Each structure stands twice: as structure tokens, then as C-alpha cells.
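Researcher: Please generate the 3D structure of the following complex. Treat every line as part of one assembly.
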Amino acid sequence: MTAPLIIFFVLAALAVGGALSLIFQRHPIHSALSLIVVMVALAGLYLLLGAEFVAAVQIIVYGGAIMVLFVFVIMLLNAGIEEHTNFSKLAGFPGLLLAFALTGFIAATIARSTDTVQAASQPGNMASTRDLSTMIFKDFVYPFELTSFLILVAVLGAIVLAQREKA
Amino acid sequence: MGSLFQGGHLLSILIFFPAVGSLALLLLRGDDHVFIRRIALIVSVAEFLFSLLLLRGASFTSGDYRLVEYGQWITSPPIHYHLGVDGISLFLVILTTFLTPISVIASWSSINHRVKEFFVMLLMLEVGVIGVFLSLDLFLFFLFWEVMLIPMAMLIGIWGHERRIYAAVKFVLYTMAGSILMLVGIIWLYNATGTFDLPTIQQMIQTGTLVLEPRAEMLLFLAFFVAFAVKVPLFPLHTWLPDAHVEAPTAGSVMLAGVLLKMGTYGMIRFCLPLFPEAARRAAPWVAVLAIIGIIYGALVALVQPNLKKLVAYSSVSHLGFVVLGIFAFRTISMQGAVYQMLAHGISTGALFLLVGMLYDRRHTFEISEYGGLATPMPTFAAFFLVAALASMGLPMLNGFVGEYLVLLGTYQSHWAWASCAALGVILSACYLLWSYQRVFFGEVTREKNKTLADASGREKFILVTMSIVMLWMGIGSTYFTRRTAAASQAVIDLVEPQRPFEARVTRDGRSVGQPVVSGTNTSPVAQTSSTAKGANR
Amino acid sequence: MIPTNYYIVLSAILFGLGVLAFIFKRNIISIFMSIELMLNAVNLAFVAFSQAMHKLDGQVFVLFVIVVAAAEAAVGLAIIILTARNRQSLNVERVDLLKL
Amino acid sequence: MFPRTDDLLRALPELIWCGFGMLAMLLQPFVRSRHFFTVLALIGAVAGTAAAFVAGATPGEGFYGLIESDVFSFFFRLLVGLVAVLVVLAADSYLERENLPFAEFYALLLFATAGMGVLASTRELLTAFIGLELSSISSYILAGFRRDSTKSSEASLKYFLLGSFATAFFLYGIALVYGATGTTNLSRMDDADPGSNLLKLGLALILIGIGFKVAAAPFQIWTPDVYEGAPTPVTALFSAGPKAAAFALLLRIFASVPAATHFWFWAFWVLAALTMFAGNLGALLQTNVKRLLAYSSIAHAGYILVAFAAVTFMANDLNGGATPAYAAVLFYLLSYALVKIGAFTIVSEIGGWGEKNLTLDDYAGLAQRQPVAAAALSLYLLSLLGLPVTAGFFGKFYIFKAAVNSHLIWLAVLMAINSIIGAYYYLRVIVVMYMREGSAEAMAVPAVRFPVAVNVVLAVTAIGTVYFGLFPNQVLNLILQPNLIAR
Amino acid sequence: MPILEHLWIIPLLPLLGAAVNGLFGRTWPNKIVNSVAIGATGLSFFTALEAVREFFLLSPEQIPWVRQYFSWIEAGNFRAGFDLQVDQLTVVMLLVVTGVGWLIHIYSTGYMAHEGGYYRFFAYLNLFMFFMLILVMAANYVLLFVGWEGVGLASYLLIGFYFLRKSAADAGKKAFIVNRIGDFGFMLGMFLLFRTFSTLDFVKLFDKATPLSAEPIGHLGTLTVACLLLFMGAAGKSAQIPLYVWLPDAMEGPTPVSALIHAATMVTAGVYVVARSHVLFMHAPTAMLVVAVVGCATALFAATIGLVQTDIKKVLAYSTVSQLGYMFLACGVGAFSAGIFHLMTHAFFKALLFLAAGSVIHAMGAEQDMLRMGGLSKKIKWTFRTMFVGTLAIAGIPPLAGFFSKDSILLSAYQSENGDPNVGHILYAAGLFTALLTSFYMFRLIFLTFFGKERYDEHHVHVHESPKSMLVPLAILAVLSIVGGWLAAPAFWGKPDYFAKFLEPVFAAPGGTEAGTAEAVAHALEWPLAGVAFITALLGGFAAYWLYLKKPDKPASLAHFFGAAYRTLLHKYYVDELYAAAIVRPLMWLSTNVFWKTVDVSIIDGAVNGIAEGITVVGDGTRRTQSGNTRSYAVWVVVGAIVIVAVIFWPHVRPVLGVAR
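Model: Done. Output below.
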């Protein structure tokens, strides 16, 4: 049991635990916080995988921007404890069961079929951020430009939807 | 098969002239009813005259198609604008163009709201029907087949009576249910042959370049047959007919009974038999049984109808049964009879519906019990009604007889049992027609309203006289028609089962030509027919 | 070293938990969070694969995904605010005007 | 490292659409005139559509193989462009009636169109994902565009939540495919091992994601709600644009990934069957016309999936056996888009302020009140019903043909049955319009005189429907070629 | 040969009359109408006479004289032409029809003078003449069938002439439908014949049939079946058991109609057809036997019913049925010429009787019940005299017509040995007994009507003799009824029976039972049998005299004594009731409740609507999945995911969809 493996398991446990608590926390704020935990854990895993740039972005954008946005909205709408209605029969036990089934299946399939990939895997040599940027601005310039429009749309949407009725 | 557009565009004109007419109507203002009616009448009459040109346009001494029009329409899959007329379709077209003006006149005063739309629909209906009769490309055929649906539904649904909407929807769904499967069948056939062109496929089958394996052929046959059987309508599929007829306005019923039902039997003759002879042969007994059930059953149900129009409707079920029987007996004579019966039924039943409609115009009911003793206030009308009834029950010298007689005679040649059962229909038709006639026209006038009913008006007289003359003519001068239909129907029969002359049959049955079936010690007719039937099905 | 499929399986589990959460949670915001959870799971998979195959594009994808997630978050939260305004509840089950 | 001109040319339509979208946004503070923006958006949409020809004129791959400019993308760009144009025209009067922010609307519309354009032209999954998001997010916003309407916002919410839920699946699918093949570029997956379960799973998840977008049962579940809640012109857009784009992507994926071989037709077989029935049966009892059309669009997605089953069935047939099936999909999408936009436009016009009159009763006696509208709507319905001399008929015909061609007789029969069921409720609308007398107050309502723009929409759609119903040749010659999708 | 070349003129004339009267007669005064009608018939009568004259100039090989005018139906190897034929048989029928028909037309002008619908009546009557002439002149079965159905139509119209009376309308309908039942057989007969000989022209067909050897008795060969089917038609038209029921009801029509159609001409069409097809029948002894037996039975049966009827026309009706039975008996035993001979004489005296009865009714003011008559002999002398002649004739008192014809029938019956030597004697006995009954009920009629005390009150009914227009035809017919039989008289002195001799070329064709061998035997038996017949006739007459003049109260007591039998007879053996109960009502019930209400409405339509219902229900279910709850929606997505994954990864779920292949 090497050190990285231990770290991996710790982080994995952290992530899963965060996810679970996201589910079981009754208050959105707590859910949000547990989600942040997950993200941080994932960031750790990225580092472990030698993708430090991604890890950084993960912390900054996700943990920083997005989650803050969440918390902000929760505060804005001062959402309280979520009420446990069960209007949806389907989403009760059967739903959860199905979800488990799906998850189990996907996980199992992957576990059985990633061996090929795994063979190729060896100690993560750090990917240089330069290569990354060249890739973004050369190979993927088109989608990159598109994302800019995407952001534009988002802004636009936020304005259109969230702005108060003009009196 | 013709080069590009040989023999002028008469057929195209026939198909699209009414469409042009209806477009013209659409552009008119909606409120000047008289003018609209006049236009409609002019258009339909002109159309009728055009159709008469067919008789000059070509001779029908051989089975192949005349006045063929052939042009590329859709490149992939190769669909052609392929029209043609032969002896069978010839008179059906003329029947259509003849009945349309009649219906126009018939609805002259009975249609008063949304007049424009009415005549537009009527003409569009004509377009669809004529298209069906003239198109030689499976795809084109199907196209017209479906096009005809909506105008008819509209006629029923907008200008019909109480339960019109139910009837209209039922009509459309019934027909679609059949035809959609036919579409699948058509496509299947295309995959097998690579063409939608009817004559080409026929040649393929004749020359043996196309051989369908029995199961597929049977399925295809059924796909087509069911669609047609619904239209005919054949026994278990007939229940849309009474509703449609009872609810439809007079003109609608006339077109429906006069022409639309024929599309079904026409389809059988034109597609089921030539394209799938083997399957047709195997299915024949079942079809015949259904047809016979239809004949007797329809007659019996008609017998007890309290509703005059429903009675006539069920009588159609019975009469069309004869046609189907005639087709699937695979005898030249019976086929001829079937074709003739189609025309005859179109006229006589059309006339009956017209008469019933005229009664409705006066009293606004179809209940027989509402009438009685009408012969006193309206003798002329009663006389015409009697003529129509007699024609419909197949009295010699009137149109109904020839068809029925030939069908039965022909059928008897190979299947004496079928013919014998079917012949019961002749008795029953007399029963229900005479009984209803008596209840409507004979006896004292019971209802106060009926005492003052007006006799046939000038316009009505005109219609009725025309119809009666046609009935009489078809009853006496049948050869005028049969000589033109003969070749075509013979051709169809030859495809299904080539007919041997009688003597040949006898010799094959091991008897000398001189002494036919009745030599000293001979089998009972049953045995003989079975033997001959076997022979026929060889 | 750590086998790649550990990561992938983990991502699968996280993804599944996201699905689970989506079904389980009632509060719209939490549901949205569970979507973010699923996206994170995807990211993990991407990174793991790219690392395993010595290809950088996997990480590029992650960046794109994060951007998209941000955009979605903006719009989503706007929509949530709108909804909260229109009917004073964040319970997704109470948002069922449109049915049948 | 500025991209080469050809690349730009090959992406020109999207760029133009986005450009005009931006323009609209920028001018929004300064210009108050609605017509200005309408014209602007119109120009933008048309220009983009025209640019499709430019792009089509420079075939080949662009941006290092991320996008492909071939007949396929040409066709779909034209299609979505046409949709955009029509929706702009249809929306104009609607926006005024409901007094909604028009600049933003058009901007979003153009961005969405751009997204669809990307989906139509991309050959790489990540780009596809971006395009998908571009169109989806715009759609989420557009769905909720009538802020003060609870229905609208609810539609927006549902669409957003479920949409991103599905997107997550799609994305995970991409991840797995990437894991299995080491690339996300569809044209570089040839050496991937088709048997790999990872790949299968990835494709399956992608199928789920796209299946959601195209409203394939049981992912269709969101469709009726969203379609009903969204502003009607937007509904028109949804039913025509994004669906077509999503189908385009699906088609491209399953056309070019070797691993997506024969046996996938099973999946499509199931989806198709489920979808057809879900749509038609659901529509059977609808009294809300808008919702009815929504269900019908599900049903039609089902029909298209039948063609997909045929496509995948023919996947192994290398000598262009699948070509007719492809053509069937494309032609159907075209005919269907025309009809749906026309129908929804009429619905939005009849709906009146606040979309009040949506139920069948409001359509009773429409034939007398507004003969033209009634006639047009019946034409569309008949096309949906698949009656001859309408484009819908040929569409259905080709799908039948494709199905029978692939020996999917039973699927064809199922489709036939569904056509009958469908016929029932389409007819019901026609019946109501023509054969029922309108209620007193309904008849009292003065005939709505349609704005010019709307009339243009109706004219284009109606004429198009009839024209393609009679002379489908040009379109067919375009889409019926083996190298429809460049490999 | 002007007329023989243009035979079509003969039937066409009445048709023209019918057309003219029918179309325009409505507004015309009676004078013009009846002059048109009588003119048309008379003309065709004289044309017929001319035709006959020319016919006698023909050389034997020119007979049968067939003229083809135009081809009516053509299909495949089937051709039915509008071909007319004249041979000896036709000549007889032609003269009877046109002659008697003309007389009756004349009579009608008087009888119908005060009726409404005068023009209609004569139009129908002429129409009937047309079809009847077609029937007798047709040269093939199909054209014959035209006349056959046509006369049916005419009789339908004429029976229903007083259509305001329900009974009349019913009777007309009944007549037509019962006839249709017969026609059903007739048609099948034609079909079978065509299948066997592939032609329906008499000449060709009989030429083909002649060389065939006769089918052994008791054997259902093709010809036997064909003949039986034809006979079925004949039975319908000529009111034989079991299809006789329509004829008595047919008396609802005006009396001249009863005389012309239901006594003289139409009802004998059946006999004519059998005689016409004698070639076939000669080859089918079984059929012959059936014909003979049925005929004999009918004769006896109808006669018994005739005994107790009190309606003067009903009595005559049943006597007609019975006489027709005689004719079939004749045909059945191969004495075709005898049958035709009786047909002719019967036409004379039965027409006479009916017309006289009509005159009586006319005199009594539409009273038909004999129980309300009596003692009329003084008041209406001529009517009485003529009618008495008729009675003598039918009763078979020599030397009147009936005696000779009936005698020759009995004779042939006595000789016939078809199948069993005793058959002949049985038939003879039955026939003889029938003769007894006949004379009884006829004299009963006379005595009840003309003798005894008046059983009506003079105040209401003032009896008056009929106009000339009615009496003249009576007189002529009376004369004919007297002399009509003398053609056969020479047979008693060993000389040839002229009538038989005349018809010989027609009937002598095949087996040769006619003439030849029979002659010798006949001569030996001639006198004794004739004597017997004469005595029976007298017996019958005397019985009637004794019962109805001497002891007028006797009949009542007798009736009371044989209560059951009497009632049975009075109700015509309850045959109508039987038919109603056994056929009509069940059929109606079946059609209404089973076919229409159950099969059509419940089962078929029920199924159709049921399917629609079912789909709607399912549709509602599908709608319910649209709960509007986003969480459920999410679950649906998951479900979908699982479905797809399952289909892709577990091949063994695919065969569930195996139908896809």
C-alpha cells in the first residue's frame, strides 16, 4: 500500500462522503458546503493525477466562483430546511433502486473494461501548462471561441430572467 | 407501353379539370349561391362531356391500356406519372363523371350553407376518384386513393346529419387502417421489383422474372386486399358503410355508393388478381365465402331496417358481394358480370339514394314508419322509385339483371355451390325492396304531413328520368358496354387462370366432346363440379 | 501506482450519487448542486483518462466543462430565482402546474 | 496562430449568427424600435443561411478536423437557418403582443441557431457538447422568456434541470468514449475496438443525452410541459430547430463511429416503438392544442427514430445501402420543421394575448371565422397525418421505405398502427374547426387579422409543404448521395 | 313472309300501348285510353293471326322458325340474344294469349269503367301482354326468363292495383316473392343447363340433348337435376305445391286480371315451360314422375280446399290451381299435347268463369261472398247462361271443351308406366276423384249463386245485368268453351286427334311416347274411360244439387259433423300459417336480433369501437405518466437509460423484440 494509494483512498472517501452528505443534509447551505468538500477532494485527486492546472482551476472557478454563487443565491432566497414532500411515487423507493442499479451497472462495466487503459497508466509526469494552452488556442480554438458566446448567453440570460420587472 | 405522352393529354385533363374548376370556385365570393351552383354544374357537365371523348378516343378491342401518358415524376425512387385507361376503368370513369353533375343538381336546393365549400369538395372528390381509376403507377394510385379521403369525409362531416362527425371520422379511420397497410405492401413490392409501374410489374410476373415466395405473396395480397375490402365493403369490414351513408348528404351518398365503393372492387381487379395470381387463387375460397355471407347477410339486415337509407346502404353490401364473388370466381363470364354489376349498381343504387334524399328533403326523416301511402300524393315519384327498386332487385331488361345473372352464371360454371347460395340473394333482394316499397308507398296515407307532399319537381324529374333511361339502356343494350369491357377483363382472367372452352374441359374430364357430362352412367352434378373445380384450379 | 480504473470507478460512483441526489433532493438548488456533482464526476474521468493515455486534451475538456458549468450555473440560478419569485417555494414538487 | 480563411469560411454561418446576436445585444441599449431588431435579426438569420452556401462551397474539414463542411452540414445549416428566419418572422408580432424584450430574444434566438449550426457541422464530440450547450442554454432562457407567467418559468425550470441532467449523461458518455478510443474526434475512431464495453457504454450514454434532446421516449417526458409552457414561437423553434440539430449529431455519430455497428438498431428499435406510442397515445385525449402538437412532435420523433433503426441496421452495408435511410431522416426533418413552425405560428396567433385560447373549443368553427388559418392549419395537420400532396406524406413514405428496405417489417407495421392512432387526433382538430359550430362568445370574437410577417410564415410553410409534397426531387437529389456525410 | 320476318311487332304493339297509356294516359279520358289499349292488343292479335297464316305456309324443315334480332347479353362463350321463335306450340300459345287477352281487354273497359287509375290498369294490362308474348315467343331460356319475370312484375302491379288496401299490396308482394323463389330454381336450372351444353338457345340445346340416353329412374343425373330446378320455377309460376299459396291471394286484383293472368295465361307459363323443355324431361323420367305426382297432388289438394270456400273468386282460384295440376299431370305422364290442349280449353272456360263471376260481382255491387247471393239466374240471365256453360265445360260434361281435354289427360295418366306399372292407375284414380270434386264445387257455386232464395236484401243491392262490352266477350268465350274441344273429338272414332297431330312435330321428337304406340291402346280405352269420367262429373253435379238445393241446411250440419276436417279445409290446411311460422317469422327474428342487433352492432361494430375505447384508455394511462413532477421525470430518464443499456449489453433481452426480424 503505497502512499499515493493511501492518499487516493482518503480523497476518494472524502469525495464520496461529501457527496453523501450533499444528499443527506436537509439544509441547502450544508449541501453546498459538502459539495465544496467534494470539489476540493477532486482537486486533490487531480494533483495526484498530475494535472495541477486543472486542480487550480477546479479550486478557483468551482470552489471559488460557482459555489460562492450558489451560497449567494441560497442566502438571497433565504432557502430554509427543504421540506420532505413525497408527491412523486416514482421517485421514492423505486427511483432510488433504479438509480442504484444504473450506478452499479456503470461502475461495474467500467471496472471490468478499463484494464486496457490501466495497463498504459504509470506515474503521472506533470503535463506542462504551455502545451495545454497551445492545445486550447490551436486545436480547440473553435470551441474556445464558442464558449465565449456561451458566457455571453449566460450573462444575457441572467439579465433577462433575473432582472426585476421595470416599473 | 406508350412513348412519352402519346395520345394527347385527355386523361390528365379528365383528372385535373375538376380541380381547376374547384379552384375557380374557391376564388368566387361565397354568398352568391346560384352562381356557384351554376359554375359547379357547368364544370361537372363539361367534365362529363370530356369523359365521353374517351369512347371516341380509343378502341377497346384488346386488353392493353389506351391513351397512355407516361412521364418521369420523382427520380428516386423512380415514380412515374403514368396514366392509362382500359375497358374496365373506362366506364367507371364515365360513371363518375356522370354521377357528379347528377349530384350537383341533386344538392341544388338541399345544400344551403357553405355552398361554395360543398361544391369544391364534390369536385375534389371527383378528382381523387378519377385519378384512382386512371393511374397505372402504384404510388400515383395510392396518392389519389388517399386524396379522395378528405373531401368525402368533409362532405359527410360538414353537410351530414345528426351523427355526422362520428360517421366521418369512422369512415376515414376505417379506410386509412386499410390503406396504410397497402402502402407498406406497395413499398415491399417496390423493394422486390424496383419499380412502382404496374404494367412493368405485371410483365415481370408474367414472364416469371419476378417470383414471390408464397408467404410473402400472400401477405402482399392481403395488404392490398384488406384495403380494398374495407372500401367495398366486404362482410366483416362493412360497418362504416351504414353510418357513412345514413349521415352523408344525398350527393355524398350517391358518390359514395355510386363510385367510391367501386374503387375497392376495381382495386381487386386491377391489383390483387394480376399482381398476386397465386395468392389470389389460394385466397379465392375464403373471399368467396365472405362475399356470399355479405350477399345474404347484407340482404337480411337490410330486410329489417327501420331506416330507409340504412336499408339501401345494406343493400349495397349485398350487391357488392356479387361483384366480389364474380371477381374471385375467376371465370370470364363472372368477371364480365362483376364489371357490369359495378356499373349497374352505381346507377341503380345511386338512383335509390337520390330518391331517398328527395324524400328526406320533404320530410327530414329516413324512418320508414314516418311514411306510408305516398303513392297517393306523389304518384310520379312512386313510379320512379319502383323503377329504381326493380332495377336494384335485378329485373330483366333493367341494368341490375345483367350483372347479377352473369356473375351467378359464370360462378356456377366452376363453383355451383357458391352460385346457388349467392342466388338466394336474388330472392331476398326482392323481399326487402318490395316490402319497404310497400311500407313507404302503399296503403292509406297515415301521417297528416304526408297528405300534402309535393310530387317530383321538374329538377327531380329531370334527374330521375335520366337515371331511368340509363337503367333501361343498360338493361337492354348491355352489349354496348360488355363489348368494350370484354377484352380487359379477359386479360385479367388470363393472368389468374387461363380459361379453357367447355369442350376442352369435358375431354380433360375423360368424356367425349359429343356426349358432355350426361352420358348414361354419370356422376351427380356435385361430383362433376368438384371434378371440374379441381380441373379449374389446376 | 494507482490503477486508472480506480479513478474511473470513483467517478462512476460520484456520478451515480449525483443521479441519486437529483432524484432524492426536493430543493431546487440542491438538485442543481447534484448536477454539478455529476459534472465533477465527469471531470474526474476526463483527467484520469488523459493522464492514463498521456494526452492533454482530456484536461482541456475539463476546462471547457468547467466553463460550461459556470455558464449553466449563472443561467440556472437565474431561473431558480425567477421560479422562487413566481411561486414562493423552492420545493421542486410544488412546481407542477404543467402536467398530463 | 490565427485560423486559416477556409476554416472561417467553413464555420461562416455560425460566426455570422453569433455576430448578429452580439450586435443585437450591443445595440439593445441604444435602439428602441422593435422593427429595427426584427429586421436586424432577419438579416442575420438570412445572412447566416446564405453563408451556408459559402460554407458548402468550400467542402472539407476545418479547425483541425473539429468541423466538417459537407452536404450533410450544408443541409442542416439551411434547415436551422430557415427555422430561425421563420421564427423571427413569427415572433415579431408575438413579442409586441406580450411586450417582451425583443433585442435579447433575437440575440438568444441567433445564438441558439448558431449552436444548432455547430451541432450540424461538428465532427468532434467536445465541440458538439459546446454547441449543444450553446443551443440548450439559450433554449432554457427562451423557454422562460415570459417572466411573469408561472407556466413559462416552470417550463424553463424543468427544461433546465432535466436538460442539464441529460447533458451530464451526454458528457459522461463523451468521457467514456474518449477513454475507450483516446480521442473525441469521430473521424479518428476507426481503429477503436468495436467490442469494447467502455465504448458501448459511452455511446449508450451519449444516446441517452441526445435522446433527451430529440424527445425520444422515455426521455420525452419533459417535452409536453416545456412546449406548453414556453412562448409559442419558442415552442415552434424547439420543435423544429434543436430537434433537427440533435438528430443531425446523432446521425453523424452513428454514421461515422465504426463501433456503432449493426446491433445498435435494437436500441433504436425500442426507442422508436416507445416514442411513437408515447406520443400518439398521449396526444389522444389532449384538449389543449399546443400540448397536443407537443405530443405529436414526440410521435414524429418516433417515426424518425424508425428511420434511424433502418440506418443502423444498414450500418455494415458499405455500398450505400443506408443512403435512402439517411435521406428519409433528412427529408422528414425538413417537412416536419415546415409544418410544425406553421402550425405553432397559427396557434400563437389564435392564442391571443397571454395565450388564453389554446383549447379545442377555441378552435370550434374556426373555418367560418378565419377560413385561411383553418385551411392552413388543416394542411399542416394533414401533412403531419401523412396524407398525399403534402411533404409529410413523402417523409412518411421514405421512412416506410427505409424500414421495409431493412426488413423491419414489424416496425413498419407498428408505425402504420401509430399513423392510424395519430390520424384520430389530427382529424379531431380538423373536425372541430370545420364541423363544429363555435361557441357564441368564440364566434363573437372578431376575426384576428394576421400581421404580414405571420402571413409570410404561413405562406412559406404552406407552399413549401405542398411543393415538397409534389416535387421532392431537388431535395432528394441533394441528400440522396452516398458521400452525404464525409468520412 | 312480312310478319314472320318481323315477329317483334307482335309483342311490341302492346308495349307501345303500355308506354303511351302509362306516360300520357293520366290526363286522357277513358275512351282514348281504352281505345289505345284495345287497339294495341287487337292489332297484335290480328298480327298474330297473320303470322300463323304465314306459318302454315312454311315447309316443315323451316320449323321451328327462329329469327335473331339483336344480341342482348354477351360474355365469354355466353350469348343471350333477343331471338324469337315460332313453332306449333308457340302458335297455340300465341293465339290463346292474344285472343283471350284481347277479349279480356274489351271486357275490362266495361268492368273497370268506374274505377280510378283507369289508365294505369290498361297500361299494366298491356305491359303484361308484352311480357307474356315475349315469354311464349322467346327462342332461348334467358329471353323466356325475361318474359317470365316480366309477367311476374305485371301481376305484382295488377294484384296491387288497389294499393290502398293492405291486403292487396300484401298479395302482390307475396305473389312476386313466391315467384322469385321459383325463379331461384329456374335460374339455377339455366346455369346447370349452360354448364352442360354451353348454350341456352332452345334449338341448339335440344339438338345437343336429343342424342343423350335417358337417365335411369331414381337417378339424380345432370338432366334430372336441371329439370327439377326448371320445374321448381314452373311450380312457382303455375302455383303448384308447395308454392301455390300466392294464387288465391292474388284474387285481390281486379277480376279481369284474375281471368287473364291468374287463370288463362300467366299461370300456365309453367306448363308451357315444361312442355317447351320436354326434350330434357323425356331424358329425366325421375323428374317426369315428380312433375306428375306434384301435379296430381296439387289438383286433388286444391280441389278439396275449393269445396268449402264461400268467396266466389276463391273457389275459382282453387279450381284454377287444381286444373293447373291436371296440366302438369299430363306433362308428367308425357302427354304434353294433352297438357297443352287442356291449357287451351282451360284458358277458354276458366276465363269465361272468371269474367262471369266478375259480372256477378259487378251486378251485386262488389259482393263476392256466395252466401249473400242466390237466385240470381232470373235477374242476370246472360251472365247465368254463360257461366253455366263454363261450369259444364270445366266439370267435363260432353261435348264441351273440358270433357275432351280432361279425358285425354286421364287416359294418358292411366296408361303411363313411369317407373312402376301401377303409378298410372294411382294417378288416374286421383285425377278421377279430383274430377268428381271439381264438378261438385263448380255446381255448388252455380247453385249457391244463381238458385235458391236471395240471401241479400234488395234495398241495398239492386242487381243489374252488365253492359254489352262485358257480355259479348262472355258470349264468345262461351262458344269457345263449347267448341274448343272438338279438335280432339275425332279420336273417339279412331281418327287422329287433330290437336295432338298439329303439335306432333314439336313433341314427337324424342322418345316417341306421344302418338304411335299410345294410339292403339288409346283407342281401346277411349270409350270406357270417357264414360267413367262422364258419370263422375254427373255424380258431382248431383251431389251439389242435393246438398245445396234440396237440403240447404245439410251442409251446415255436415260441416259441424266433420268439424276439424271442415275447419282445416276452410283454412286451406293452414299452409300460410305454417309458412309464416316456419320461415318468415324465424327469418325476421334472426335478421333483427342476431344479424343486425348482435353481429353487426354488438360484435363487429362493438369490436371496432371497443378497440377505439381501449386505445383511449391506454392513452389516458400514458398521459398520467406526465405527472408534472420533475423528480418522477428524472426517474423516467433513468429508466430509459437502463432500457438502452440493457438492450445494448444483454443480448438475451433482444429476442423479446424478435419480431423485428
